[in-house]
Specification:
By secondary structure, the chain is mainly beta. Helices cover 5% and strands 28% of the residues. Strands 1, 2, 3, 4, 5, 6, 7, 8 and 9 form a nine-stranded mixed beta sheet that branches. β6, α2 and β7 form a beta-alpha-beta unit. The protein is globular and about 40 Å long.
């Protein structure tokens, strides 16, 4: 069992672990793993996965943050976006098996840098031990093949590497679930973007 410490092992910081993932310490969450409520309009789904190092071992103390548009394609901070039902931001610390889980809605399409609509996607920021800087990536959805093929950002990624950004769809216990593992290094390394 992992012993909880006041400060995390990540090299990005300094900060107190209980301020980022207070629920692990018995405190109320500041930003939990649900950027939506049950009343939020849209197709509700679960994003789950693992953070793995170059050897395929779980990273047990990573912090995964997501930011996304709502089902209409509006970010919470955009005019007409955000509500008590949708904040668009969530955070989840990984467990001993490197697992994370978010309950959200499938985002709508938003305009890209050139004004063309991007495929539905979720922005991901990752902090983990040994990282001097945050890592940024995106989650795209495998059942959005047509939109993915036309996405201006995804098209910049070599075709052989695009699969590292695609969440795989499944149904489990009546819930729509997308699996998205984050590989920090190695043969299956996730594509990360510079910000």
């Amino acid at each position: 069992m992992t012993r909880l410490r006041q400060t995390p092992s990540q090299t990005v910081g300094p900060y107190f672990a209980y301020a980022l993932t207070p629920e692990a310490y018995g405190y109320a969450a500041i930003a939990g793993n649900r950027p939506v409520t049950a009343e939020t309009p849209g197709r509700h789904l679960v994003i789950e996965g693992r953070v793995l190092d170059g050897a395929g071992d779980p990273v047990e103390d990573a912090l995964v943050e997501i930011w996304q548009a709502d089902a209409r394609g509006r970010y919470a901070d955009a005019p007409g976006g955000g509500s008590a039902d949708f904040v668009g931001f969530a955070r989840c610390g990984t467990d001993a098996e490197g697992r994370f889980r978010f309950e959200t809605v499938k985002p709508g399409r938003v305009p890209g840098p050139d004004g063309r609509l991007m495929a539905p996607h979720i922005h991901v920021c990752l902090t983990a031990r040994g990282l001097l800087n945050h890592l940024f990536t995106r989650i795209y959805f495998e059942d959005e093949a047509e939109a993915n093929a036309a996405d201006p950002i995804l098209s910049l990624v070599p075709e052989s590497r695009r699969g590292t950004l695609i969440a795989r769809r499944a149904h489990r216990h009546g819930a729509l679930v997308y699996r998205f593992d984050i590989h920090l290094q190695g043969e299956r390394e996730t594509v990360f973007f510079e910000v």
